[in-house]
Amino acid sequence: LMKKHILVVPGDGIGAEVTAVGKQVLETIAQKFGHEFTYDEALIGHVAIEATGAALPAETLEKMRAADAVLFGAVGHPKYDNDPSAKVRPEQGLLQMRKELGLYANLRPIKLFDELLSSSSIKPEILQGADILFFRELTGDVYFGEKTRSEDRSTASDLMIYHKYEVERIVRKAFEAARTRRKKLMSVDKANVLESSRLWREVVQALTPEYPDVEVEHQFIDAAAMLLIKDPKRFDVVVTGNLFGDILTDEASQIAGSMGMLASASVGDSTGVYEPIHGSAHDITGKGVANPLASVLSAALLLDISFGMKAEAEAVIAAVDAVLKEGYRTRDIADADTPADKLLGTSAMGEALLAKL
Ligand code: NAD
Ligand code: IPM
Ligand code: MN
To answer: Is 328 noted as a catalytic residue in this protein?
Structure first.
C-alpha cells in the first residue's frame, strides 16, 4: 500500500474533459490495488491568466513542487493564437513549468494498438509492429534561447542554443532506455547546417563507446521526418532536441492513429508531469468528443515512472486494449466500419474503461 499526492492541472480547452477521465482511472486503480491517492487541482494557461493575470501562478508552482506527480491537460486559447502581440500567453505557463521543475526529458512512446491498424492513414503492412520511444529534450533549444525584436519591429530572432551538459543528460537517458528495448538509438539533428546540432552530434558520438551494446544511427531532421512515414519499424529509441522532437512526435501520432492516443512523461530534477502531446483542441472543446486515452495513457506513465507501480500501469494499458478490442472508438479513431453504438464520447469512453478496470 502506498500513499501518494497527485496534482491535477487540467488547463484549457479539452484539458479539463480528458484529465477528468485520467483522474477517474487513477482513483479506480488506487481502490483496486489498495493505495491511497489524494488529489488537488491548480490553474495554468488561459484559465490562470483570466483568474490571476499569470499563466503559471506561484501557487500552482508550489503545489506542483509539493506533489508526488502532476497529471496535466493542455494549455492554449484561440484568442492568443490569433494575436501574436499578446504579452502574457498560456503557452508561457507550460514552458515556465518545464523550466522551473527541470523537466528536461520528455518521453513520448508511440505505441500502436493492433486494433487501430486500420484507423491510421498509413498502410497497415507498413505500420504493423511499429513501437517507438522518443526522448525529446524539453528545457533548451530555440524554445528558451534569447528572443529579440528590432525597434521598428521588422526583424525578429530566436536563439537556438544548447549546452553540452543539456545534451549529455538527455542522450544518456535515451541510451539507457535503448538498452531495455531493441538496443537501437537514432539521434536526430541538423548537423549539416546548425552549430548547435554539431555540438549535439559530437556529444552523442562521445558517449557512444560507453554503450557498445547499443547500435547508434544519426539522421538529419528532414530525412528522419521522411523515414518515419516510409518505414516506422526501423525506429526504436529516438533522441532529439526540443523543436525537432515537438514536430516529429505530432507526425508520429499518425502511426498510433491519432493525437488523442499519444501520452507523454516529462521528467528531470523534480516532480514528474504527465501530459498528452496534444493541445487544447478548441475545435472540439465542450462537445464531449475528445479522446481521453492520451490522458489515460499518461496516467499509466505516471503510475509506472513516478510511483514505480508497474502492475498498476499495465492494468491501465490492458484496459485501454480491452475497450479497443471491444470495438469502442471515439470519433478521431473511428472508421467507416465503426457501428453507431460503439462510437463513444469522452465520458462514455471513460465509463467503458472503468468497467474494464
Ligand atoms: P491540438 O493538438 O490542440 O489539435 C490538433 C488537432 O488534433 C485538432 O483537430 C484537434 O481536434 C485534434 N485533437 C487533439 N487532441 C485530440 C483528442 N484528445 N481527441 C480528438 N482529437 C484531438 O493542436 P493545435 O490545434 O495546433 O493547437 C491548439 C492550441 O493548443 C494552441 O493554442 C496550442 O498552442 C496549444 N497546444 C498546447 C499543447 C500543450 O498544452 N501541451 C500542445 C499542443 C498545442
Ligand atoms: C507540446 C506543445 C508545446 C510545445 C507548446 C504548446 C508550447 O506543442 O507540448 O508539444 O511546443 O512544447
Ligand atoms: Mn507539440
So the answer is: no
pLDDT tens across 151-176, in order?
A: 999 999 999 999 999 999 999 999 99
Residue nearest to atom 3 of ligand 2 (CA): 91
Q: Is this structure's pTM higher than 0.90?
A: yes
Q: Of 104, 143, 162, 211, which residue is the catalytic one?
A: 143
pLDDT digits (tens, 9 = 90+) for 305-324: 999 999 999 999 999 999 99
The neighbourhood of ligand 3, an ion, using CB within 5 A, equals 246
Q: How far apart are CA 6 and CA 8, in angstroms?
A: 6
- Spacing, Cα 166 to ligand 1 middle (Å): 28
- The complex scores an ipTM of 0.98
- Label residues 211-236 b or e (16+ Cβ within 10 Å = b): beebebebbbbeebbebbeeebeebb
Cβ 76 vs Cβ 90: under 8 Å? yes
The amino acid present at 318, given as its one-letter code, is A
Active site residue 246: yes
- What is the 246 CA–ligand 3 centroid distance (Å)? 5
Closest-lying ligand 2 atom to the alpha carbon of residue 243: 11
Q: Distances from the Cα of 323 to the Cαs of 296, 318, 357, in angstroms? A: 12, 9, 10
Superfamily of domain 121-256 in CATH is: Isopropylmalate Dehydrogenase (3.40.718.10)
Is the C-beta atom of 277 inside 6 A of ligand 2? Answer: yes
Say whether 143 is catalytic: yes
Whether 98 has a binding-site annotation, put simply, is yes
Q: DSSP secondary-structure letter at 142?
A: G
pLDDT tens readout for residues 59-81:
999 999 999 999 999 999 999 98
The position carrying cell 486494449 is: 321
What is the residue type of 331?
Answer: R
Question: Residue 353 carries which side chain, given as an amino acid letter?
Answer: L
Query: Is there an atom of ligand 1 within 6 Å of 250 CB?
Result: no
CA 135 to CA 345: how far, in whole Å?
31
Q: Under CATH, what is the fold of the domain 1-106+260-357?
A: Isopropylmalate Dehydrogenase (3.40.718)
Domain edges within the chain: 1-106+260-357, 121-256
